Amino acid sequence: MRTSTLIQGGKAVVRLMGRFDFSAHRDLRDSCSTLLESADVRELDLDMGGVEYMDSSALGMLLLLKERADAASKRVALHNCKGTVRQVLDIANFGKIFSIA
Fold first, then answer.
1. What is the distance between the alpha carbons of residues 17 and 50, in angstroms, rounded to a whole number?
2. Which residues, other chains included, contact 37 with Cβ-Cβ below 8 Å and sequence gap of 6+?
3. Consecutive sets of 10 residues in the chain, 101 residues long: mean pLDDT of each?
């Protein structure tokens, strides 16, 4: 998985591209750690539009990210969720945990 980040007005948009599975753990952690530590960032928006595949380990990574964001008083939202990625999130009831669009 590849990531790119854009920070604008207190919001960081992290664009995820490729397969979101256990092999993406380091990329996601590296992309989000600095953002979670930054006082300038209040919200993390994960743009899932480029995600081709997502498995249960990705769900676990999202939960860990949410936990770390909550501890840092930051908000996490998931955007551009479509196709099978949206189905996986819906089946896991992630709409009760995250704002999903």
1. 4
2. 72
3. 93 96 92 93 97 95 97 97 95 96 88
- Residue given tokens 């899932």 in the structure block: 48
**Beta-carbon neighbour count of residue 3 at 10 Å?**
18
Longest dimension (CA), the chain: 34
pTM for the predicted model, two decimal places: 0.93
- Structural domain of residue 51, as residue ranges? 2-100
Q: How many CB atoms lie within 10 A of CB 45?
A: 19
CA-to-CA distance for 98 and 1, rounded, in angstroms?
21
Length of the chain: 101
Tokens of 21: 């599975």
